[in-house]
């Protein structure tokens, strides 16, 4: 069998450049093509117009084949053509080149691309990213090309693939599956799913929150700047991005209020598109006045990044929104001796626990928000007012915090009823009381020693 002389091809795009139609290479990062970029004069350039072409040589002849205007379809055609090229080079006769789509019929990938483009206006960037990741995962999983061919078994198979092959948590797999199911159903697929088809997820009734003694220990050991930052979270209930993009124009010192407003020029949009204003205690306003005095003049953001010192100042001028607040909190939590010590983590390529590194999974910025909400309800605030301050669209979302309150009340009633001691023999009760109080005292002493150790570390220059 005579081997065909063929050269591996490339993917190009025909665009109008300086008034003339010309072919330019599609940009690559590593071994992967970037369908929305081309290379012009050696530089990657964003490009949304133009037809994609496969370009290769075979038996000394140059062949160029149009493969449409959809980047993902063009990349798939290039992948198929590359496989065909490999077969021909090895001596296998392959008559057809890369397959074409059915005339006048849009592929599933094209329709999904159109869907995502249409939702770019209505979905927040974070939500759009979740949709894109879920749909891209499904496209990589399925071998079917058209939405009308997708059946419920394909969704079930996708769910099984995510949980068994990709080792995703049931909740994550369910969220991705719901996105794919909803989008494809909206685009015309007949996908009737039963309740038992979805991964079982345990519903959490209790929202994790910080205890008062924990926050007191944390705030007694951190730097002054971090003291003000964590106090801001605790007294506003703001989300991470709402704190990161809070500007001084949002702070009304006269009325004692702080607002959440969108910042289009910074790419910040409010969740649920609901602007809100939160009253804050005078103590927080005093801290903000103190903090403002430490910032450069005309600082826009309340908690901007700090400029580097010395020669690196030109490379890191500061003034941008902070992206590392969670890392800062975990480090402060670790130095305060508050890590649980039971989280199994990897650091430096080695397995360890959060007792040795600042990676405790029980620490999170959103827990400040839970703490804020629960404390408001404990103080007797109306749930409707609490919902408004949190920026919830539905009061039902806020009602989950009431479960924590009811548990607290039940616990107080249990302690008052002495049910915990009703089965202890009378001759043992005095001994048991002493043991319980001794354990509590020892625990408080360890907490206090942890705070002192953290202060010593900071004094030694470990920041």
Report strand %.
Answer: 5-15%
Based on CA atoms alone, the radius of gyration comes out at 30 Å
Run of helices and strands: EEEEEEHHHHHHHHEEEHHEEHHHHH
Under CATH, the topology of the largest domain is which? hpI Integrase, Chain A
Q: So what's the CATH class of the largest domain?
A: Mainly Alpha
- Given as residue ranges, the uncertain stretches (5+ residues, pLDDT < 50) are 1-6
Give me the count of strands. Answer: 11
CATH architecture of the largest domain: Orthogonal Bundle
Q: Taking strands numbered 1, 2, ... along the chain, how are they ordered across the largest sheet?
A: 4-3-2-1-5-6
How many domains? The number is 4
Rough outline: globular
Structural class: alpha+beta
Sheet of most strands: 6 strands, antiparallel
Our count of helices gives 15
Mean of the pLDDT scores?
81
End-to-end span in angstroms?
72 Å
Helix content: 40-55%
What does this structure look like?
Helix 2 packs antiparallel against helix 3. The longest helix has 34 residues, at 426-459. This protein is 44% helix and 14% strand. Strand 10 (344-347) and strand 11 form a beta hairpin. The strands form three sheets. It has a six-stranded antiparallel sheet, covered by helices on one side. The chain has a three-stranded antiparallel sheet with strand order 7-8-9. A two-stranded antiparallel ribbon has the order 10-11. It has 463 residues and is α+β, with helices and mostly antiparallel strands. It has four domains: 6-89, no CATH class; 108-197, DNA polymerase, domain 1; 212-305 and 318-416, Intergrase catalytic core (hpI Integrase, Chain A); 421-459. It contains 15 helices and eleven strands.
